[in-house]
Amino acid sequence: MAVTHFTPLNSIQGFIYPRFGSLKTARFASFAMKTAAILSCLGLVVASAIPDFTTSSQFPTKRLSARSVPGDLGLDDVQQYTGYLTANETGEHFFYWTVESRNDPSKDPVILWLQGGPGCSSMTGLLYENGPSFIDNATLTPIHNPHSWNNNATVVYLDQPVDSGFSWGQTNNTDTSAKGAKEVYAFLELFFQRFPQYPKTLHVAGESYAGHYIPSVGAEILRHPERSFDLKSVVIGNGLVDVLQQYKEYQPMFCGGGGVPAVVGPEVCDHLDDTLAACNKLVETCYNNVTSANCVPVGGELCSNLTLPFYNETLNINPYDITKKCEPALDNGCYNESDGMTRWLELPRVLTAIGAEHAWNGCSDNVSDLFYSTGDPFRPAQRDVTFMLQHGLPVLIYAGAHDIICNWLGQRAWTDALPWHGHFKFRLKKLRPWHVDGKVAGAVKSHAGFTFLRIEDAGHMVPHDQPKPALEMINRWISGDYWLVGEKH
């Protein structure tokens, strides 16, 4: 009998996706095999230029390679770099792609973007969400994105853990977000050493399972007072952070409580209500004593029942946007237009230009299984958010209003419940209209550097669904407007 899991497992796009029984996540299963065949014919891809390497006495067993990306690749007119963080002690190689700011890279901050998963490639963010270009499905040519997040920041897209995207290794020892955060910190130290032309001001952003990654990364950075860069803030979009609070909001979201009509009937709604109480007991056991033995059971059949409507083929619910349908036969995570990205990433000229050393793996089953084996998806990542806020670090939580899997109701619930020094005042704040170009684009509440923003007419991938409001959000935020209102008060 197949092992039953609940949680969020992502598709090729890097979304969290519910895994249940023998059902598979939506992903391009043939992609890795096709790319592997290309690399087998070519041998390991030879870089278009010999890379240079950066080492550090702080991390004597690690080195960072860097090479310039040829301009004729067509993603943007700005300078771009790719390379690998190599951990000699483990044989692990972490791929990154850096896109300089279109404005003033010598003054603009750096954003590190982490995709979801666990185990999905941040190249999805680069080529499908907030990067300088998207890939046309028909022609496999880049289409300029005027709302790219590199308009006013240098953005670094990192594939982590090992086996995600173009990252690879002889072994993979990362089975928790906390372990992965240590490698991310080492990467950042070597990155800022290698690229002294950029200001050492950093914002860490991501979506989906990055709701676990980013709190761990932020806390890890803050635990290093000797760090050579300044962590300015963290930004999490539609993240999986606190399952105890977020699981409670599946039933309301399915049943009409999230601002959109119900997609299931009263009987299903009653069943979801009945399931929640028993599921919560499992989560509380995990939270009370965070061990693999206590947290893994949360991924069993009981809590999986909270997402059963996803598997009703009559409903064809899109887990990432409750207002859209998803054909069960689709092997692309419900988004046809993402096909161009995957095919572009297997073109030999692209692989050569970026110095890829391994076949691209859009989402890694291996990484997913490792993280589930420790119960990492169910561990209380919100505790690291508390740690960051107590250290005065600004935190932005944003959510597309139409997402189901990490819906805005759940985001509001866990942020309201979060214990920190500003808890009571934040909880009492009311959502107020958030405007872009004089029009209501969402609703926001904020106190003492902790901000929650709901963005209208967007699903799980806010930068993809609402690119202009998403860019306005990030530009205001990295400018120091942690209230997102255009003025400080």
TrEMBL record:
Record carries keyword Protease: yes
Top-level EC class: hydrolase
One BP term from GO: proteolysis
Molecular function (Gene Ontology), one example: serine-type carboxypeptidase activity
InterPro entries to which the protein is assigned, alphabetical: AB_hydrolase_fold, Peptidase_S10, Ser_caboxypep_his_AS, Ser_caboxypep_ser_AS
One GO CC annotation: fungal-type vacuole
Keyword Signal included in the entry's annotation: yes
Enzyme Commission identifier(s): 3.4.16.-
Keywords: Carboxypeptidase, Glycoprotein, Hydrolase, Protease, Signal
Gene3D superfamilies xrefs: 1.10.287.410, alpha/beta hydrolase (3.40.50.1820)
Pfam family, any one: Peptidase_S10
Annotated family: Belongs to the peptidase S10 family.
PANTHER family: SERINE CARBOXYPEPTIDASE CTSA-4.1, SERINE PROTEASE FAMILY S10 SERINE CARBOXYPEPTIDASE
Protein name (Swiss-Prot/TrEMBL): Carboxypeptidase
